[in-house]
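User: Okay, second chain of the day. Same drill as before: sequence in, structure tokens out.
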Amino acid sequence: MKDSENSASSTYGNLIAKNTVYNLLGYGIPGLAALVLIPPLVHGLGKERFGILTLIWMVIGYFSFLDLGIGRSLTKVIAEKIGMNKTEEIPIIFWSALLLMLVVSLIVSGISTFFIPTILNKYLNISPNFKTETLKIFYAVSLSIPLITTSAGLRGVLEAYQKFYAVNLIRVILGISTFLIPLLILIFTKSLFCIVISLIFIRFFIWSVYLILNFRVNKKIWSDVHFSFESIKPLLRFGLWISLANIIGPLILYSDRFLIGMKVSAAAITYYATPYEMITKLLIIPSALGTVLFPVFSSNFLTNPTLSKKLFIRGVKVIFLVIFPIVIIIITFAKEGMSLWLGNEFSVHSAYILQLLSVGIFMNCLSLIPNIYFQGTGKPKIPTLINLIELPFYLSIMWFSITKWGISGAAMTYMLMATVDAAAMYLMALRIFSMNIQSQITVSIIFSIFVLIIPFYLISILSKVFFIGSLSVVFYFISWNYFLTIEEKTLFHLKTQSLFKRL
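Assistant: Same drill. Structure tokens below.
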């Protein structure tokens, strides 16, 4: 019996590892594509056009969250039905959820279309030469909202069936197309409208592929079309707070660029959004792990809370040990990196922005694990309420900072609020779940935040190299001797030996 349990545990662990790798590739490959394709895209479009395109990407990203939390809820509920061998109940849940998302997104599309002229003329500082074209672009994006929103639900079904390979293959295609399609169109025309229409067409293609794959994983979905409000009540109960979070989160996430467009210029968005697009790719690491941990937290919290908490702490350690070295290197060599990537002009305007945003993204990475833990254990309202409280302060401070200091003020505000958010998440986790976080972990993370400030004052390349070299030795010594437990060291040795044997 014990051998059977160990075998199942090993299989389950391998599945988590495999799906995490799929997620990393699904997020990482488009990130690499962005690094390669953004420079020629900026050069080809010009700063203002690229700034407008960035706003379009941001709007599309925001509306992909407006699914009432049903995408995440579908993953949870359908996975439960599969586990209980009640797959015959899935079609009615699928169609009812899809209909609800469609109705809500059509309403949002209609409302947003009505307000587009007002937003464009009164709140976005776009030069007159681009206003007519930008108006048409925003209308097109608004009409595509139902397509964008329902895609999240279709993807949630595939994740419930553990089809992470297919989901991430599609994500790679979509991610690369987001940057490659505009670049290819630039060969023929600089029309942003043509570029955006092409991106919407790609979205429609992806939506169609999602739908076909849904029909394949459960053939009854195609043949058994039914609708029932009762069937979506469990989705709405769980999805209500997720939905609210999906509205608030992007408001916090994207408001900086909108305010820069309002208070400064569309061209200034480029100097801010370009390093932002680069550094936010680091979020793929905690996101890849978090997506896989979500069902693990859900299934273990009630039956084995000790294991659930153990996985929480281990997840925090993994994120810290992976992200901190990357962030400290980026902050230290921000000026040189931006100059090499996009030239001296961008380095002058964006290196300091990259440094500030890097600290903020480090805090975002750390806060993602408690966020996923709250959701996985059935308490999504906690991070949502935290964000709801933060929102008015964030918007007010961001408005003031951009008005007074421009894009530097925006980056500083982002960094400070990300730190406050991470602290609030962990304090609530400690209070509600009585997490037994080792003092070494707490001290190490707090100390690391102060270490991140040092590279801001390093000027010469020699001092930067010396700093990174010295810190690497100290980081390895502290991590191995004080940060990791004996069990984690043993597990690391076993995994390393297994890897070398395969090689």
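Confidence is low (pLDDT under 50) at residues 1-13.

User: Thanks, on to the next one.
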